[in-house]
Write a structure and sequence with these properties.
The chain is of the alpha/beta class and 365 residues long. It has three domains: 160 residues, Nucleotidyltransferase, domain 5 (2-Layer Sandwich); 66 residues, no CATH class; 88 residues, no CATH class. The chain contains 13 helices and 14 strands. A hairpin with a 2-residue loop joins strand 1 and strand 2. It is extended and about 85 Å long.
Length: 365
């Protein structure tokens, strides 16, 4: 889907679609996949389709899945095959594949692949923009388009749904689970990606459920938080997924560390913060520039004003002015008028004496 030019908040979205289709009725389901072909993407997309459909066909047919097996050793290929067969067995489906290089054997879905992609391209033209504020909005856009396409085949879908097998009681596993240890750097490395976590977790072993687009992080059986999934660069270089909320307390103690942070560009939550740091470095000594930049991040963290502060920084930079930290702190300080004044009336000690006297009288009675 890369040639459609879809962007999320201005950043290009490199993605694919998992496309499910019933051969007779034409029922479709599309799931946005952020990585390449993998068991996790297949399991999540397939199960979303089956639960949306409300039934299970007797056979599930795919292509040869050669891309999913690429660069895997024999043991890893065997494990992926075993997991896919177990997934189909959970739903009572027979897994089949077409022969390598013979896409026409899957003609009932190969042609609709192109039709769906052209329909999305046309819908983007009518929308007049290929930019979406977040991934959820884009996924909703695709879901609504596919829903309208299914609405044209309601009678055929209902007739085919009537002969489908029942869904199992629950979904099968659609994630990989790994254990990681949080290093003294305040994060862990997984699949060539470094993820930051709160510093209180340094030294702990975490259990991570690895989905196509996210990581669910657990300590024991307790879910801590969810992180967006990162991926290494195509040339093999490592990447980072950084949340400034996780590291701001350490940066407050050593603001000069900002200057040489490997993941500095990923630290800034929005472009105006990065542009502000660049402007500060160009006009002020490095130590002072780092201190102000860290204080800006701390202000966004403490006051919960990340988006509003970014807008203020953008206005200041557009006017060729450096951020005025004192003015920004005053602007985003708590409003005294919004803080209720509570009057606490303290009782006199004599009232406690009367309670004791009443208790004594009651015992005597």
């Amino acid at each position: 889907m890369a040639d459609l030019g879809v962007t999320i908040a201005g950043l290009r979205l490199d993605h694919r679609l998992y496309h499910f289709r019933l051969a007779y009725s034409g029922f479709e389901h599309a799931h946005v996949v952020l990585g390449g072909e993998s068991f996790v993407a297949l399991a999540e997309g397939l199960q979303n389709a089956l639960w949306s459909l409300g039934g299970v066909p007797r056979e599930h047919r795919t292509d040869s899945l050669s891309a999913a097996f690429r660069n895997l050793d024999a043991a890893a290929q065997e494990d992926l095959t075993r997991r896919y067969e177990a997934l189909c067995a959970h739903y009572g489906m027979t897994p089949t594949r077409n022969n390598t290089g013979l896409a026409h054997e899957n003609g009932s879905v190969e042609g609709p692949h192109g039709h769906l992609k052209r329909a999305i391209a046309d819908a983007l033209l009518l929308r007049t923009s290929t930019d979406f504020p977040d991934l959820t909005t884009y996924r909703t856009f695709v879901d609504e388009l596919v829903g309208r396409r299914n609405a044209r085949q309601t009678k055929r879908i209902d007739s085919e749904r009537a002969v489908l097998a029942r869904l199992p009681e629950r979904r099968s596993c659609d994630y990989e689970q790994v254990s990681v240890r949080v290093s003294s750097a305040g994060g862990f490395r997984l699949r060539k990606v470094f993820y930051t976590v709160p510093s209180r977790l340094i030294g702990h072993t975490l259990r991570v459920r690895l989905y196509d687009d996210r990581l669910d992080v657990f300590v024991g059986g307790s879910h801590l938080f969810t992180l967006p999934r990162g991926r290494a660069h195509p040339d093999g270089r490592h990447d980072q997924v950084v949340d400034y909320h996780h590291v701001i307390h350490a940066l407050r103690r050593k603001p000069m560390a900002l200057l040489n942070l490997v993941y500095r560009d990923r630290l800034f939550p929005r472009a105006p913060y990065r542009h502000a740091f660049e402007a500060l470095r160009a006009s002020l000594p490095e130590r002072q520039a780092c201190r102000i930049a860290v204080d800006l991040l701390a202000l966004a963290h403490d006051r919960g004003c990340e988006a509003e502060l970014a807008e203020c920084l953008a206005v200041e930079l557009a006017a060729k002015r450096l951020p005025d930290l004192a003015a920004l702190r005053a602007r985003f300080a708590p409003d005294p008028a919004a803080i209720p004044h509570v009057n606490v009336a303290l009782g006199s000690l004599a009232s406690y004496e009367s309670l004791l006297d009443a208790a004594t009288t009651g015992e005597a009675a």
